[in-house]
Each structure stands twice: as structure tokens, then as C-alpha cells.
Write a structure and sequence with these properties.
Blueprint: H1 13-46, H2 49-80, H3 84-117, H4 129-149, H5 152-182, H6 187-219
Helix pairs in contact: 1-2, 1-3, 1-4, 2-3, 3-6, 4-5, 4-6, 5-6
Amino acid sequence: MMTQHPDQPHTLRSYDDDLLGIRALVEAAGDLAQRQVLAAVDAMSRRDLGEASQIVAADEDLDRLQAQIEHDAISTIGRRAPMADDLREIISAIKIAGELERIGDYAKNIAKRIPVIAETAPVDPAVIIPEIAGFVANMVRSAITAYIERDADAAMNVIRRDATVDEYYNSLFRALLVHMIENPKHTTQSVHLLFVTKNLERIGDRATNIAEMVYYSATGQTAGTRAPAVSAAYDAVVPPEGK
């Protein structure tokens, strides 16, 4: 089968329907994944244990979407024998579905920590967590939009945002360590918040992975090696005076 420009219809209308169906499933999975992330952090901020349980249960919906994407993509490859642009797009859909499933797992992990976090009063450094969640959820949404529109420039913009997530993570990591030194009674909650922060940082990484796949799918070229993050998270933390 000859490869055509992504904006041109294929000879068989049913082939276009197959591709549109896969894109719609990927879009639905991306929408669910980013909503799960935002809902998990919102439930954590509000100490809403009922909402946390619903988020954990909803993870199965994302698992089902991943399975459906893989099934439809493999079926399309078998029936249509796609080449070049089309094959890259379909293979990317399978890989993106896996990344979105992992994002759902991170959201579920955040939700599972809410009962412990809710046992004590909120800690000051945690006020920035919703902002980080909003940032990485937007990365997920932008990466999926870039996939649907086959927009390499938009994908590259998502890739560049990964450095900002690392800066968020390093800053909050250090702030929580200092808080634990100053407030030993908050150690358990702070440790769980550290894991929440790490989950959000990993969601940013997954969104970046998706954007890199989109860039390759749209151009046939890799997006290049990510610049290594300059991490200050594990630098020595100076204990406050008197501690």
C-alpha cells in the first residue's frame, strides 16, 4: 500500500475510518489520564477519601482503553499492511497507550496515599502540588493534541517543558526535607508527599515520552536527546539552627 500525505484521504474510506477510530481512542485515553491526575491531587487537597476510592476504581477504565487501542492497532496493521507515515502513527498509538496507562497508575498511586496524608493537618510546602499537577496534566493534554493533529512543533514544545517539571520537583523535594527536619511529627505525611511529588515528576516524563513519539511519527526523525537535568534535589540540605 502506498503511503499518502497525512492530510490526504486513503483510497479506501474504511482505512481512514480505522485510523480515525484509533485516534479517537487515544484522545479518550489521554483525556481520562489527565483528568485522573487532576482529580487525585484535588482529592488530596480536600482530604476526600470517597473521591480517592473512585479514582482508584476508575483506573480500570484506562486499562480497558489501552487494551482496545492495542487490539484495533494490531488489527489495522494485519488488514491494511500500512507503510511509512501510517505505520509510524499506528505503532505510536500502541506505545502512547502504554504511556497513558502508566500515567493512570501514577494517579492511582497518589489517590492511595490520601488516607495517610489526610490523618494530619496540611503542610506548607504541599501548597504547590496542585500547580505541579496542573502543569503536567497540561503536558499530557498537549502531547495528545499534537498526536491527533500530527503537529511536530507542538510535540517539541511539550518536550521542552520537561525541564520545568524537574525544577518543580527539585524545589519541592528540598522544601519537604527541610520541613521534616523542622517538624519531625510530620515525617510520615511528608514522606508520602515526597512520593506524590515523584509521581507527578514521572507523569511529566511520560508526557515527554509521548511527545517524542509524536515527533517521530510526524517527521520520521527523532526529537534529539533530552538535555540532562541539573538536579539539586539531592544536594546537602542544611538543618535549621538548633536542630
